[in-house]
Amino acid sequence: MADDKRRGVLFDVDGTLVDTTYLHTVSWWEALRQADHRVPMARIHRSIGMGSDKLLDHLLGAERDRDADGRLRDAHDALYAEYWERLAPLPGARELLGACAERGLRVVLATSAAEHEVTALRAALDADDVIDSVTSSADAQESKPAPDILVAALDQSGLAAERVVFVGDSVWDVAAAGKLDIPCIGLTCGGTGRAELAGAGAVAVYDDPAELLNALPDSAIAALG
């Protein structure tokens, strides 16, 4: 049940707090190449943020034979796992989470990464002391741009949609938040441009967590009260 008195910030993680967007791009490119699918990296990059099912639909077509999808996902996961020990937070990520917690806001990682990837992402962030709750792909029936992972994040944290702000780096994040009427702050550190995020409906756009941290007193997060 939502606590009407509590407010919080939901954060996407990949590309928003941890610098992984291009690692996912390269991993998908190689997984697809191994299966004789020649997909330009630019197209792959623009699909990052979707769940793997929708990403493959977007890149290979919804009418394709899906029998090989499992092998493609496994190949991506194996390739991406090679980077886990080198994952790094984006500038200001830890500090932004801490600043939100200091304001009395619940800090929620609303990620649709698989559970084993979430462990690596949390290790890179090293901010468990200020994180209230964390989702994973197991918590959502449908991936972004569907809002399922945000619904799960709200349920787990006891927050109401009208008492939160979402921070993400892709148009898919903005679209998912929009379906629940949650204001979404966009960050360009995942590689999506300022104009595109704003055009998708982001209420404000910053370069990275550090810039949002510096602007926090005047941001949509501060407006939560």
Automatic annotation (TrEMBL):
One of its GO terms (cellular component) is cytosol. Pfam families: Hydrolase (PF00702). GO terms for molecular function: phosphoglycolate phosphatase activity. InterPro entries: HAD-like_hydrolase_sf, HAD-like_sf, HAD-SF_hydro_IA, HAD_sf, PGP-like_dom2. One of its GO terms (biological process) is DNA repair. PANTHER family: BLL8046 PROTEIN, PHOSPHOGLYCOLATE PHOSPHATASE. This is Haloacid dehalogenase superfamily, subfamily IA, variant 3 with third motif having DD or ED/haloacid dehalogenase superfamily, subfamily IA, variant 1 with third motif having Dx(3-4)D or Dx(3-4)E. It comes from Micromonospora marina.
